[in-house]
Amino acid sequence: MATQPTDEVLLDIHRRMVRIRTFEDEAGRMAENGFIPGALHLYVGEEAVAVGVMAHLTDEDQITSTHRGHGHLIAKGGEFDRMFAELFGRVDGYCKGKGGSMHVSNLEIGMLGANGIVGGGPPIAMGAGFANKYKKNGNVAVTFFGDGASNEGAFHEAANMAALYKLPVLFVCENNGFGEYTPQRDHQAITDVADRAPGYGMPGVIVDGMDVMAVYEAAGAAVERARQGDGPTLLECKTYRFYDHVGRRGMGRTYRTDEELAEWMKRDPIEMFEARLAEQGVLSADAAKEVHEEIARDVEAAVEFAKASPMPDPDALLDDVYA
User: What global pTM score does this model have?
Assistant: First the structure.
C-alpha cells in the first residue's frame, strides 16, 4: 500500500497546480495583447496530471513534453520569470528566446523539452531511459503525450523498445478527448489508450486525470516500478482542457459543445482538491486564497521581468543551435 502523503506534500501539490493555472491564464492574456508571438497551447484544466506525476520526480529524473508544455515545466520546478521571457522571445528565457512556447526546455531540472512534433517526445524519453539503465543511476524518464500522439509510429516504437529492455520509463497519455479539433472517437477505434499496453508487454493503468490524488497514487506506483527495474507503465489520465486548442478562445468551438465544457469545468481539479484539503483540515479557504494571491503577484513580477529583458542579437541566431 502506498504511503499516505504528508500535509507538506499535499500543500506542495496544491501550490504547483495553482502556479500552473495562474501562469497559463496570464500567458493567455499576454498572447491576446500581442506580447507572445506564434501559437500558444494552454494547459488549464489538466494541471492534476502534470503535478500528480511530478510530485514523485527529482531534478535528475527526466521528462519530455508536448506542444502544451508550460504546465509540465512549471510542475517540474520551472521559474516564472525565465518562462515568460522565453515566451516573449527574450534573451533571459530558458532557451534565450529561441525555443518559445512549443520548444522550451531546462536541462538543469531534467526537462528535455517541449516538442511541437506530435509524438516527438516518447523516443527521446525512451533514449533517456536507456541511458539511465545503462548508467544504473536510478533515474526515471517520463514522457507526456496526448491521445492523438498515441497513433504516431514514434510512440509505438518507443513503447515497444522500452518494454523489450525493461527501461525505467513512464508513458503518460493525457487523454483530453481531442487530437487538436478531432474527437477521439473519430481518430481511434478504441476508448482507452491504455488497452494498447498489453500489446507491448507493459501494464496499462487508467486514472481520473481531474483528480490529482488519483494521478499521484497511480504515478507513484509506476515510478517505483520503473526505479526497481521492472520496466515501463502506460498511464492514461482522462482529462480535459478548458480552453481551446490554441489560446483561450482560439479558432472557435464548433467541435465541442458549451454543455460538454460546462460539465467538465464542474470538475475543476484545483477546486476539487481545495475542497478536499479544507475537509481534511489541511488548507482553509482563506489560506487557499492567500496562495492564489501570492502566486498572482509572482506572475505579475515575472511579466515585468520578461518585458524588461532584451531581444536577442541577430548575430546570435546560430548560437546553441549546432553542437
Answer: 0.95
